[in-house]
Each structure stands twice: as C-alpha cells, then as structure tokens.
Amino acid sequence: MFSKPFWRQVRSLTRANLKSRYRKTFAGFIWVVLNPVILFGVHSLVFQQFLKLEVPNYLIFLLTGLLPWIFMLQSLEMCTSIFKTSGALLKAYPAHPLVYLTSQLADNLINFLAAFVLILVPLLSIKHFSPLGFFLLPLPIMAMAIGVFGMAWWLATAQVFWGDTRYIVSFAMNVTFLLTPVFYPVNFIPEYLRWIVVVNPFYHLIAPFRIALYEFHLELFMKYLMHSFVVSIFLLLSAAWFWKKKKNEFYLYV
Amino acid sequence: MSDDIILGITKLNLVFRLDLHRSMSWKAAFARAVSNPLSALTAERDRFHVLKDISFQVRKGERVGILGVNGAGKTSLCRCIAGIFRPTTGSISINKPVRAVFNTQVGIKPELTGRENAELLAQFVYPDESNHSELINEALEFSELGNFIDIPFQNYSNGMQTRLCLSLISAKPAHLLILDEVYDGADAFFKEKVSKRVLKLIEESGAVLFVSHDAEQIRRVCTRTIILNHNQIVFDGLPQEGLAFFQTLKPIQS
Question: Which residues share a beta bridge with B58?
Fold first, then answer.
C-alpha cells in the first residue's frame, strides 16, 4: 500500500492542495496561519485577562494545547468527507483512497507547523525553553500525526457508509474541546472526574507536546510520549481493521 | 497461469447491497419494521447481482471488445479487473500491471490549470514512472489546447476536458489496457485524431479490453467480442458474429 508510487502521488497532491488553496488570494499563506493566530490571541485574552486563570506562562501553556487542537480539529473535519468528495476520482483512476486522505493531512500539518513557528518565535523572548525539549519535539508531532491519521481513516470510511458521521464529528469536537485540557491544566479537573481525560485520545496526543515546551522533564516526557504512541498505534491499527472489514463494499457506496 | 495469458477470470460474482443505498427516514424504517417484522431476515431481496458467474481468459495480443446495453455490467466488470471493485466471489488473476481509464472528464484539482492537472493525472495514470515531464509535454502538444492549457480545468468544456485526459492516457502502451467509453465528449475532429493514436496504443499494448457502444469501432479495433446481457456473458467470439448477435439482443431490451 505505502509504496513509492503511493508517496509520489501523495507529494503531488499535497503540492496541488497547497497551490489551489493560495491561488487567487491576495494574502495567500497568511490566511491559513491567521486563523490559528487570531484564535490564539482571543483565547489568551479571554482566559488570561477576563477569567484570570492562574497558570504560569499562560501564553506558552495555551500555545502548546491550542495549536495541536486546531490541527486535529481541522484535519478531522476536512478528512471525514474526503472519500465521499473524491468519489468520482476514485472510480475514474485506480489509486489507493489513502492517497487523498494522506495528502489532506500533510497539507494541514504544514499549515500547523507554519502557524506554530509564527506564534512561537515572538514567545521565545518571554520564556526559556529546554533545548532538549525542542530537540525531541518531532516525536510528539509524529505520534499526533499518526493518531490523527488513524482517526481520520476511521471517520472517512464511516462517512462512506453513514452520512451522519460528519455531523456527529462536528458536534463531538465542540463538546470534546471543552472536556480536553487545552486551555486549562489537567489538575483543574477534580480527581473523581479524571477518567474523562484518561479515555480522551486527544489529551494523550497533546500531553507530550505540551511537556516538551512548557514544563520539560525527561522522565515525564517519555512516559506521556509512550502513552501518545500507544494511543496512536491503537487508532491506526483499529482503523486498518475497520478498513479491511469494509473495503469490499467501499467502492460500491463511495 | 502461463505467460501467454494476461488475464484470467474464474466464476466472478459481484453483488450490491441495495439496502445500503436506500434513503429511509426513521419513520419509514419504523413503519417497515412494524408492517413486516421479517424484513430483516429477508434481506436477500435487497441484493442486486451485478455480475453473475463470469469466467474468461485474455491472451497476449488479444483486443477484446465488451458490448452490452446500459446496466449489463460492462463497467463493473472492468472496475473489478482494475482492482477498484472487489468481487463478492470468484477470482481474477493478472500477471502484469493494468492501466484502466473510466472517465475522461474528471479533473483531479479542477481549480488548477490544465497543465497542472495533466501533471497530477500523470502520477495517477502512470504511477510506476518517476519522470513524467516528456510524456506530459508530448500529450499537451497533442491535445492542441493552445493557450487554454494555462487556464483552470474547471473552465474547460466537456470536450476540452476529454481532449486533455485522452491525450495523456493514450501517450504510452500498457500490458493490459482497459478503455471504458473513453471517447465520450470529444468532438468529431479530435475523435478522429485520437482514434488513430488509440489504435496505435492498442496495437502496442499487451492486451486490451475496449468498452464501447460504437459497433464500427469494435469492428475496427477488436479481435474478439464479449457480450454481457442480464449481467452475464451471453456471447464470446469473433467481432463480426458478436455484432450480429448484439443486434438480436437490442429489440428485446428496448
């Protein structure tokens, strides 16, 4: 499945996605990064200035939760309908459906990294980051990308068979945002309700990313990174299982 | 399977589950369940046998015309061979890569230009080749689209879209080539021009499956004809005899 031609097709389609997105726009790339930048600004204003959340270095704390969240939210919302919207192409030229999903995800990942760097650079002056945390940052990003790929694969396949899926995703993501420690720390949640984050895959995908930049501690980082990879690989394998179960009927309904 | 046999199909059956396509409200579903509680157990009624017990072989050098009225199963058969549809039962053996084209009016990224779409299309039609530039330039020149090459694909007429796609897909021979009503949409002048090129392509390819409603084309191109009727093979033999047999089927269908 993941052969050389597969990756060549993904690369070409990702490049085409980026080109088509910026074409005929005056500010081009800025529009894509402006959305997370504005969301970051508004969240920091509301939670730091209005609600006065007492979290040290709140801007860094928020950045390390909100940016990964936006990446995951946009990826899942855009990828859920990807098989359905690519139906005519899937039936016209024999190419693996995951080419379309992977290139959409790659497109979102590039935008996420660009927005992340754009916000992080000015913050470098207000906090000292651990160089080791910085160096290890690609690992939680990789775990997050694998986990989101698994979830997106699940949802995009489900959408082919059940048209309600994308509506449920949209609703579920709004609810999950409030239940995930993105803009508040996990210790704000009472002990008896902590199970909510334990069963929340988004929390496990965000946690090592936050530890690497916000409060780096190698032992803690490795522990949460392991959790993150376990969750990601579970999501990926379960999506592959679901795909295998459904692939015989997939093209009939796409 | 000997080297001489390029394609072998044994007892191929393809069944669609129509109940998954049917749009039904909760109210209607409830009413159906109440009025006919056994409906869940009699789901067999909701299945559509698209291909029934199809068996044949294609040898090197054969050019097989596939004929049949609309809905006979021609495209579904070709999609099974191309690996797009997975048969419900039966087997398909192919010892060489297949190049299949089912729709010549689909732009991978319609908002990008014709040239950019040709570059993308080349990745999907010729996945095993890493350098497509020479092939794309030759195809663009053949298409005679002139300055239209650099305007968005979505602004093309159906005929122009067909010109671009046909020029590209007919650029190189294949081991097993599947062409499914590929001339649809092309104007008379271009149809004549591309027909010569497709004929050359067919002669240079290992074997060809050619789906068309045009009796003259079948007569000119093919060395053998398979006729599908009511989703099964009803004739397999020489084109001249096949076309005569096909004429006898038409009044029954109409």
Answer: B7
